[in-house]
């Protein structure tokens, strides 16, 4: 085969699909999904009483989402276009270590969030956003500081997604990159505007199903083409690729080792950056508040562990295909290698897909990129709208805001942020910033608030001054270190030098860990002790919450009171509820530690320290386990929500549409039946069944 040319140069690959295909996917499919979600929202209101004109339903789905849908939503929350494209990108640059460290930089903090989520459920059950927790504990100054930090987090997260997705859509279809950037949020805006958080959960499920089916298809199709044939042959292709262009910093220059200096540096900055993305992203708190107490910990734990397979399995297979087949005539860039710009724009996965599946692979890449971007963008949009409605409008403009006022301000927030994120991404594109740059530097701006926020929820001694000053000082420290090291290593401060791995890693570490020191020192100088019971003194929900802290409802008929256990004592006491939540907290702490040790210490570090180079049998086992795990993730995301209440709810909707439900005179919204799948009926038998369920 021909020797490959250098990676420098301008891409000359012609888009395999027409612009019409790009517009159909971005506009038509987006609008169709939006219209379907609007229809589902109306059906749910008619058959289950889920009224998105009520704030508690719009923002928290009445706090009754079950484990299956929570796990699916958690997986979806991290199915960013960045994850699909970025894991293949780092695999192309670093070898098998890249996708592994990408995955290890995601799962531990998702599982750790279960601890924060259940702690919030226990201490402040009526909250809608994490910022309400900050305001109640520290006051308005801290509240404003954290509003700014969370908005910065959401803005850069959206830019990261849009830059990668629009670059792929342009490369696959020839659609203008700015048109893609502005049209991607359109469908998201429509269905989030109408359906709120429940629409986000449902579209998460729909998008996740399509993405994981296509991902599993790619991992199967890869070994059915003659150029590969088997995992063993893929191993030989990677060995040959390393001989053609050895990897600097890898053991013996091979792609088949975990001992990759650049990969572990990326792993550090990616892990810390993702801790920031999770903890400073109010959409994660919203989903935790939306889940029932019994669903938070298992939902986030199952979702976090299952998610590991997506960047690991898909990234390993697709990057290996690109490396092994780029000297073949059917590779899009043949006879040259991919340029640095193409790799940084996330084109490794689509080019590999085109190689094994032709135009069908290009179309599948376009579809999963669109689905991943719009699904996660929906969560970001609802998060920002919640900040603007609850934390800005309700707190600083209209304290007595009604349901209607808050829904209206939420709608404004949805439209405003969708437009702003597209405009901000366009600005970044025109100054030369792409997916690779934002992927590396994200932690510098997302990390300063991590530990001050964690301390706010878990440590009663952090002082008000510590909470206010430590993230500000951390941000300044991180930016200074980032720009200083970029100037030191690159000789200047520019887009190119600030996007290098080392400056980004040093800046991220400084942003993440310096606030710990600042908070501890400031708190030591003026210590405080917060009484967790003070959280419950302020009413946050617009509707009354029942005693088991799960469901928003209005005071209604005796039948409804009976169903909620308010007359016969079916609901457990607050003391037993508190004990149950503490038990879930201990389980969450265990799984947080176990996941971090497993994914970050016990598994990869011995392989790094030993400098082990994969043998063929070990590589085969590595890839086979990753693929099996990926298929298991697909089953968890698609089948589990159906088993866990989904089929029951579909049956309830069917009965409602066919006129078999005779309970329309009752306010079924009191129990969030549409979300937890429990049907409601005014008959004595049904009442008895519901009470029995509560007792169990």
TrEMBL record:
It is a multi-pass membrane protein. Gene3D superfamilies: Sodium/glucose cotransporter. The chain crosses the membrane at residues 20-44, 64-80, 100-120, 141-163, 175-194, 201-220, 263-286, 293-314, 364-390, 411-431, 437-459, 466-485, 505-525, 587-606, 618-643. Signal peptide: none annotated. GO terms for cellular component: plasma membrane. One of its GO terms (molecular function) is spermidine transmembrane transporter activity. The keyword Phosphoprotein does not apply. Residues 668-696 are annotated as: Disordered. It holds the Pfam family SSF. Residues 678-688 have a biased composition (Low complexity). It is found in: Membrane. Keywords: Membrane, Transmembrane, Transmembrane helix, Transport. Belongs to the sodium:solute symporter (SSF) (TC 2.A.21) family. This is Urea active transporter 1. It comes from Penicillium frequentans.
């Amino acid at each position: 085969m021909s020797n490959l040319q250098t990676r420098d140069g301008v891409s000359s690959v012609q888009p395999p699909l027409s612009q019409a295909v790009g517009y159909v996917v971005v506009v038509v499919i987006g609008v169709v999904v939006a219209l379907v979600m609007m229809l589902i929202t109306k059906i749910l209101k008619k058959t289950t009483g889920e009224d998105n004109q009520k704030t508690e339903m719009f923002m928290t789905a009445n706090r009754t989402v079950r484990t299956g849908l929570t796990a699916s939503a958690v997986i979806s929350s991290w199915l960013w276009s960045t994850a699909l494209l970025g894991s293949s990108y780092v695999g192309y640059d670093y070898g098998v270590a890249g996708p592994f460290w990408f995955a290890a930089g995601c799962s531990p903090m998702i599982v750790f969030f279960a601890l924060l989520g259940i702690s919030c459920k226990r201490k402040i059950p009526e909250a809608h956003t994490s910022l309400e927790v900050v305001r109640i504990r520290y006051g308005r100054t801290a509240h404003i500081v954290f509003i700014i930090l969370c908005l910065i987090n959401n803005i850069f997260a959206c830019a990261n997604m849009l830059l990668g997705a629009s670059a792929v859509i342009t490369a696959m279809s020839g659609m203008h990159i700015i048109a893609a950037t502005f049209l991607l949020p359109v469908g998201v805006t429509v269905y989030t505007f109408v359906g709120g958080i429940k629409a986000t959960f449902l579209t998460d499920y729909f998008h996740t199903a399509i993405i994981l089916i296509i991902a599993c298809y790619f991992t199967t199709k890869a070994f059915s083409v003659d150029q590969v044939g088997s995992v063993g042959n893929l191993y030989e292709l990677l060995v040959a690729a390393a001989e053609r262009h050895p990897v600097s910093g890898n053991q013996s220059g091979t792609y088949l080792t975990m001992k990759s200096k650049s990969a572990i540096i990326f792993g550090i900055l990616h892990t810390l950056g993702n801790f920031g993305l999770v903890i400073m992203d109010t959409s994660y708190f919203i989903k935790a508040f939306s889940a029932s107490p019994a669903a938070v910990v298992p939902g986030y734990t199952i979702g976090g562990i299952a998610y590991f397979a997506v960047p690991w399995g898909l990234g390993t297979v697709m990057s290996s295909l690109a490396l092994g087949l780029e000297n073949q005539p059917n590779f899009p860039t043949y006879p040259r290698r991919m340029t640095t710009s193409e790799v940084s724009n996330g084109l490794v996965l689509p080019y590999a897909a085109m190689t094994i599946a032709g135009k069908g692979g290009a179309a599948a890449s376009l579809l999963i990129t669109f689905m991943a971007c719009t699904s996660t963008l929906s969560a970001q949009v609802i998060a920002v709208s919640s900040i603007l409605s609850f934390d800005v409008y309700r707190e600083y403009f209209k304290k007595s805001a009604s349901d209607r006022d808050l829904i209206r301000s939420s709608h404004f927030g949805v439209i405003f942020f969708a437009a702003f994120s597209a405009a901000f991404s366009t600005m970044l594109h025109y100054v030369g910033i792409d997916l690779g740059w934002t992927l590396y530097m994200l932690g510098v701006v997302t990390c300063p608030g991590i530990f001050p926020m964690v301390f706010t929820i878990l440590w009663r001694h952090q002082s008000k001054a510590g909470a206010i000053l430590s993230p500000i000082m951390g941000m300044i420290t991180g930016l200074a270190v980032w720009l200083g090291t970029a100037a030191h290593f690159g000789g200047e401060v520019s887009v190119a030098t600030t996007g290098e791995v080392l400056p980004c890693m040093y800046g991220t570490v400084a942003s993440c860990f310096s606030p710990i020191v600042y908070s501890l020192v400031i708190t030591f100088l003026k210590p405080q002790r917060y009484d967790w019971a003070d959280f419950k003194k302020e009413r946050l929900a617009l509707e009354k919450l029942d005693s088991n802290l799960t469901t928003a409802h209005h005071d209604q008929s005796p039948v409804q009171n009976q169903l909620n256990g308010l007359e016969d004592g079916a609901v457990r006491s607050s003391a037993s509820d508190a004990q149950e939540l503490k038990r879930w907290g201990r389980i969450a702490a265990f799984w947080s530690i176990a996941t971090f040790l497993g994914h970050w210490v016990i598994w990869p570090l011995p392989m790094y320290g030993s400098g082990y180079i994969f043998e063929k049998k070990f590589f085969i086992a590595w890839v086979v386990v990753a693929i099996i795990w990926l298929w298991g993730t697909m089953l968890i995301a698609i089948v589990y929500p159906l088993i866990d209440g989904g089929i029951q709810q579909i049956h309830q909707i069917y009965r409602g549409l066919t006129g078999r439900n005779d309970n329309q005179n009752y306010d079924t919204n009191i129990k969030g039946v549409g979300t937890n799948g429990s049907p409601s009926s005014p008959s004595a038998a049904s009442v008895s069944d519901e009470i029995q369920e509560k007792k169990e």
